[in-house]
Specification:
Layout: H1 3-9, E1 14-19, H2 22-34, E2 40-42, E3 47-48, E4 54-59, H3 62-68, E5 72-75, H4 80-84, E6 96-100, H5 104-108, E7 115-119, E8 124-127, E9 130-134, E10 139-142, H6 147-151, H7 153-162, H8 167-176
Parallel strand pairs: 1-4, 1-5, 2-4, 5-6, 6-7
Antiparallel strand pairs: 2-3, 8-9, 9-10
Helix pairs in contact: 2-7
Length: 179
């Protein structure tokens, strides 16, 4: 099944687009599996598609993102040129766009009737080669070394909240994720 067929098959489900490096999709799948949330997942590498409420599409290709017409989208563009190719107006009316607050100016000009949820770069500390995420609850120990994931982890938290995984539950799953 190709990307366009998978999107077409998901037209009656909640379509979640993850436009970010692959490690974000891996972490999202871990959190959903950890909390036994049923979902389908489609990427160029993984085609686990079946009828579920949540159809997750991971891509780093702006053209594929534009095909999805997501209900919920997390975007972590790696460059201005990549961001410019995204058609955020394709997000379904009433949907949700999750983005880093550094993109606020560009996002504010985006047409469409959907919620725009920004997040801040995460604050972390390191002690004896162990990364800790600073949260309102406490310091959360991480087994993650990928800097892009760590910095944008609050975007993934907001995305998980859209699937009914609340903040404390997200952190519980996150502590078990290794990357």
């Amino acid at each position: 099944m190709n990307f366009q067929e998978a999107v077409s098959n998901a037209k009656n489900s909640t379509r979640i687009a993850v436009f970010a490096p692959k490690i974000f999709a891996d972490c999202l799948q871990h959190c959903l599996n950890f909390h036994q949330v049923t979902f389908s997942f489609f990427s160029d590498e993984n085609q686990n598609v079946f009828a579920t409420d949540f159809q997750i599409f991971h891509t780093e290709n702006p053209e594929e993102f534009n095909l999805i017409k997501p209900n919920i989208a997390l975007i972590i563009p790696q460059s201005e040129a990549e961001f410019a190719k995204l058609n955020l107006g394709e997000i379904i009316n009433g949907g949700v766009l999750i983005y880093n607050e550094d993109l606020e100016h560009q996002i504010s000009e985006t047409p469409g009737f959907f919620r725009k949820l920004s997040f801040q770069i995460a604050e972390t500390t390191t002690d004896n080669f162990q990364n800790f995420l600073e949260t309102d609850f406490s310091q959360i120990p991480l087994q993650i070394s990928d800097r892009t994931l760590i910095e944008n982890i609050f975007g993934l938290k907001i995305l998980c909240q859209q699937t009914q995984i609340m903040e404390e539950d997200f952190y519980e799953a996150l502590m078990e994720f290794r990357a």
